[in-house]
Structure formats: C-alpha cells, structure tokens
Amino acid sequence: MSSQDIPEENLPAEQDAHGAVSVADDKDPFADPGLPPHEHRVQDIDERAARRSERTVAMLFTLSMLATIGFIAAYVGVPHDKAIYVFPIGHINALNFSLGLTLGVALFAIGAGAVHWARTLMSDVEMVDERHPIEASPEVREKVFDDWKQGAKESALGRRKLIRNTMLGALTLVPLAGVVLLRDLGPLPGTKLRHTMWRKGLQLVNMNTNEPLRPEDVAVGSLTFAKPEGLEEHDEEFQTEIAKAALMIVRIQPDNIKDKRELEWSHDGIVAYSKICTHVGCPISLYEQQTHHVLCPCHQSTFDLSDGARVIFGPAGHALPQLRIGVNEEGYLEALGDFEEPVGPAFWERG
Questions:
Q1: N or C, fewer C-beta in 10 Å, the chain?
Q2: pLDDT, tens digit, for every residue of 291-321?
C-alpha cells in the first residue's frame, strides 16, 4: 500500500520543514535543490500495520527479558566444567557458551527493538534548521523544548503502552546480568576471618618433619613452627588455611613468663602464638633467645613472647594471639580450642 492509494484526508499532516529552494543561475551554479517530497510509510497510513510494528517491537523487548532470565539461570545452573559440542566450533565450555548466547540475544533484542521502533513508528519527517549563534536565545530554548515535546508526542511512547512497558522491562532486567556477575568476586567472608582450623583436640604438627609434636621435642630457647593436624600441602585450601593457622612454638622457663594468662594457656613453659604479624600479615621468623622477643622481618614489629606477645616496637597494632594448648593421652601437644581473637592484621569489622 502506498500513499497514492489513500485519500488525501487520511494522510498525516505535512510539516513545513523543507526549507527554501534556490534556482541555479550563472552566479550560483550549485543551487540548493531542497528536500525531496516526503513519502509516507505504510505505518503512517495504516493503523493495522502500526499495531503490527508495535507488537514486533514488544516481542523483541520481551525476548530480551527472557534472554536475561536465561542468562541468570545458566549462570546458576550450568556446571562450570561441563563441555558441549557445537557445530562447527567443536567442543566448548557449556557455561561460557550459554552466557554468551543469552547475553548476546538480550542486548541484540533491545537494539533491534529500538531500531524497528524508530524506523516504523517514530516520525521520519526530515527537519531543516538554519544555523544559529552558539549562544541560545530565549526563543531557541523555547523552540528546543517545543521540539522535544513534539518528538515525545511523535514517538507515541504515551500512546503505545505495550512498547513502553516491555521496553522498560527489558532495560530493567538487562543490568541484572552484570549484578549476577558480581558473584564471581567470591562468596561473602562471613566469619572466616575470625576463625581458623584450630579446635579442641587437634594435634600440633611440626611444619618441617610433618610429625606430631611432643613436649620433649621442644627445647628451651628453640623456635618451632607448627600447623594443624590434617592440613597437607597438596590440599586445595592449604595456602588459605595456613595463612591463618600457622603457629610459633617456643619453650620458656615458667618462671620467666610474666603474663598470668599466657602461663595458664601454656604447657610446662611451651607457648603457642600465631606466626602472622598483626601489622600487615607477614610471617614472623626471627627469635631472640635471651629476651624472648620475636621480630617481623617486613617492618620490624617486635613482640615479647614472655609477656603475652605484646608489641614493644614497630607499627603492629596489637599483640599476637595465643593458642591454648595441652597434652593428650598419647603424650602429644594438642590445641584446646581456637584463637580467641582474629589472627593477623586488624580489619574494619573486628570487634
């Protein structure tokens, strides 16, 4: 159907927007021919065609919403190690394929819907606006507002409620795909920073020999490093757990222990303290026998192991946490619980 087949009274009103037309002469051989006559689209003259276009745009926006929901479902439900065969690509990761396909469809459908809307339902009358000074006059500003209102009216956003609602739904759901991706930042820490592997009955194992420690294995003035029983270097979580559970084992003459709680939590002068410095988490490894001081090699924070491991020098903010220890029935050193405070540097949730 063309505009020639429609009675003149049914055609949309023409806008006087074609500008002046000049005629070529000797002085101006390249005259402006002006704009060609405007040709109406079938949607401009047939409301049924306009409604078909409206349904098409709404279908594309709805498809975008469904694809976004599919993206979220694939992210949650498709195993990350599953592979599928896709011709002609071959075997690919199922999760990556499903995420890329659904997100691509969601974005494409929004773009295609917007383009189809603009090409078939929004006004396509060509407008001519003469050049004007950079500084906008009140008349120009008023014209801009009038043009904006006219454009909003011609977009039919208020009248085409189906398009408006589905477009808003599609634009609202698509950002959820990015929100879901935040899950890859990792699970929330919860209380993991406050606790370690240590618990009552867990034996102290020598880091060097990988054997459980007996009291007689720890000599006065020596420094021994220990880990929890059952934690092996080939474990997937070894680095994460040892970074919190690493211990320093030192034997001090009970008479030289100044802190009452330290003495109560020790066994025959054997004390167990966190190896993780409370400044920035470096491993402490330097021990001075005569003073019972340990030194962090990173920033020289110094702790007195004979006086509750309090800070006597350096930037560390608080003492090293002590682990309460005892001896089990087999004669091996064991933990009597976890640290009573978080190990390592302070963090903002810390009470």
A1: C
A2: 999 999 999 999 999 999 999 999 998 899 9
